[in-house]
Amino acid sequence: MTTTTLPPRAGRHCHNAVNPLHSALYFSPDLGREMEALGLTHPRAAYFAGRSAPMGAVGAGTVTATFHNFSHELVARHVPAVWGTASPAAVLDARLRAVDATLRRLLGEDVLASPEMAEGAELALRATEACGRSGRPLYAAHADLPVPEEPHLAFWHAATLLREHRGDGHIALLVGAELDPLEALVSHTASGRGMTPAWALRTRGWTEADWSAAQDRLRERKLLDAAGELTAAGTELRKTLEDETDRLDRAPYEHLGAAGVERLTALATEWRNKAVMAGAYPPDLFGKG
After folding, report:
1. Axis-axis angle for helices 60-67, 43-52 (nearest 10)
2. pTM, entire model
3. What does DSSP assign to residue 44?
4. CB 256 within 8 A of CB 264
5. Which residues face 286 on adjacent strands?
6. pLDDT band for position 1 (50/70/90)?
7. How confident is residue 3, by pLDDT bands cut at 50, 70 and 90?
8. Which of 44, 117, 42, 54 is nearest to 74 (CA)?
9. Rounded distance, CA 245 to CA 206, Å?
10. pLDDT, tens digit, for every residue of 207-254?
11. Of 132, 161, 143, whose CA–CA distance to 21 is shortest?
12. Rounded Cα gap, residues 20 and 9, in angstroms
C-alpha cells in the first residue's frame, strides 16, 4: 500500500490551482498574435506548434500520440507543415513572449513583481525536482528547457512541467482502461468536468457522428446510459482514473511536503481566481453542454 504524508487529494487540489495559470495561455490573444507574426495563423497550428515545440520538429504521429484527444486527421493538416513556417526554437521564443504578455494582462504588474510570485515560483520548481522523465514524453521534453529568470515566467515553466507530468501519466491510464481519445473526451464531459461537446468538436477535430459513435461504444461497455449520462460503472471508472492519476503524480507533491503544497495551493488559487475574473477562459468552455 502506498503511504503518503499529504492530506487526501492535496496534490490534485494543488494541480487544480496551478494548472489553469499554465493553460490560460492556449486561450490568450497574446499567443495568437505571437504565432501569427511567425506565419502560424490557424489556431490549431499555433496550439500544436506551441505545445510540441520542446520535442523538436516532430511529425503528426508524435503529436497525436502525446496530445491523445485530437483527431489524427486534424493534427496531420498542420503537422509537420508548421515547421516549414517556423522553427521550434522560434516558436518557443514566441511562446514565452506570449506567456509574459498574458500573465501581465491577467494578473497585473504588482502581482508579477511581488515576493509572493517569487515564492510561488520557488515552491513550484521545488516540486518539479521529483518529477520523472521515464514514460512521460511531453514532460521530459519540457524538462530539457532552461528555467526562465523572471519569477512569473519561472512559475509558468514549473506549472507546465507539473501539468505535462500529470498529463502523461493520465494518458497511460486512459490507454490502460481501453478508452480511445474520443471515448475519453465523451466520458469526461459526461462527468461534468470536461469541455462541452461544442468545444471538443470545434477544437479536437471530431464530428458529431464521431461523438455519437463514441457514445454508442461506451453504452456497449455499460459506461454510458441511453441519455448520455455516466452509469454507476462509468462513474466508478472515471473516479478510478482520477485516483490513479493522483497516485502516479504523487512524487512532486510528496517532495514539496504538506506545508509547501498548502502554501503553493493558496498562492495559485488566488492568482487563478484573479485570472478567471480577468477573462482567462471562455465562459462556455466547461460543462455537459
Report:
1. 80
2. 0.96
3. H
4. yes
5. 195
6. very low
7. low
8. 44
9. 25
10. 999 999 999 999 999 999 999 999 999 999 999 999 999 999 999 999
11. 161
12. 17
Distance in angstroms (rounded) separating the CA atoms of residues 60 and 48: 9
User: In angstroms, rounded to a whole number, what is the distance separating the alpha carbons of residues 189 and 61?
Assistant: 25
Give dist(CA 117, CA 238) in Å, integer: 34
Measure CA of the first residue to CA of the last residue in the chain; give whole Å.
Answer: 39
Asked whether 205 and 71 are in contact (CB, 8 A), the reply is yes
Segment 46-64 mean pLDDT: 98
Cell numbers 454510458 correspond to: 224
Look at residue 289 and tell me whether its pLDDT is greater than 80.
Answer: no
Which amino acid does the sequence have at 82?
V
230 forms beta bridges with: 224
* DSSP-derived secondary structure for 264-275: HHHHHHHHHHHH
Three-state DSSP class for residue 2: coil
Hey, what's the cell of 243?
485516483
Task: Name the E strands within the chain.
Answer: none
